[in-house]
Design goal:
Rossmann fold; Cysteine hydrolase
């Protein structure tokens, strides 16, 4: 079955204030600057508008923890850094979205506590319940949540398309390596223009 014959959903991954705004505790470390240079928010907003016009299912995924981080299962060093900075605490500005990407009523909002958006969330069940067979992805960081989602979605039998110009990493080499070498093994790489034109 080709991607054109499968029901498509748009998943926007971690495009929240903490990541994409220069005032964000993660974005301020350089990610927001790269996002601005790549027009990630504006590009994602174009993709979101196209999905809404076509009546496609849309899910907004964000990273968000309890204030005490008791729900953070990972013991990786990056999580300790989040704790030290009190970053991505649910209910704060950092876990909300920039205005162009504000979820609308009827769109799924998923809060996760790890890289994989399918772990301990209802996202996978929501996709199956909506008859989705093809997921289109955009988000940050490319080599973390975007790559992880691509791998996990492929494992679950979904066709995957990554909108390269809706993604960014703080190190451009990480982004480039992921979209050129890793993601193509599990899905396809496309652009917002192609998605808007109905080709992705």
């Amino acid at each position: 079955m080709t991607t054109t014959s499968r029901k498509t959903a748009l998943l926007l991954l971690d495009l929240q204030n903490e990541m994409v705004d220069p005032e964000g505790k993660i974005g301020g470390g350089g990610l927001a600057k790269v996002c601005a240079e790549r027009n990630v928010v504006a590009n994602a907003a174009r993709a979101l508008g196209a999905a809404r016009e076509r009546g496609l299912p849309v899910a907004h995924v964000r990273l968000g923890f309890r204030p005490d981080y008791a729900d953070a299962l990972s013991v990786a060093p990056r999580i300790e850094k989040l704790k030290q900075n009190k970053a991505a605490i649910a209910g704060t500005w950092g876990t909300e979205f920039p205005e162009p990407l504000t979820p609308k009523e009827g769109e799924l909002l998923v809060t996760k506590q790890c890289v994989n958006p399918f772990f301990n969330t209802g996202l996978m069940n929501w996709l199956f319940a909506n008859g989705v067979g093809h997921v289109v992805l955009g988000g940050v960081v490319t080599n973390l949540v975007v790559e992880m989602t691509t791998r996990a979605a492929d494992d679950a039998g979904f066709a995957v398309t990554v909108l390269e110009d809706c993604c960014a990493a703080p190190n451009p080499d990480w982004h480039r390596f992921s979209v050129e070498n890793i993601i193509p093994m599990f899905g396809s790489v496309s652009s917002v223009d192609a998605f808007v034109a109905g080709r992705g």
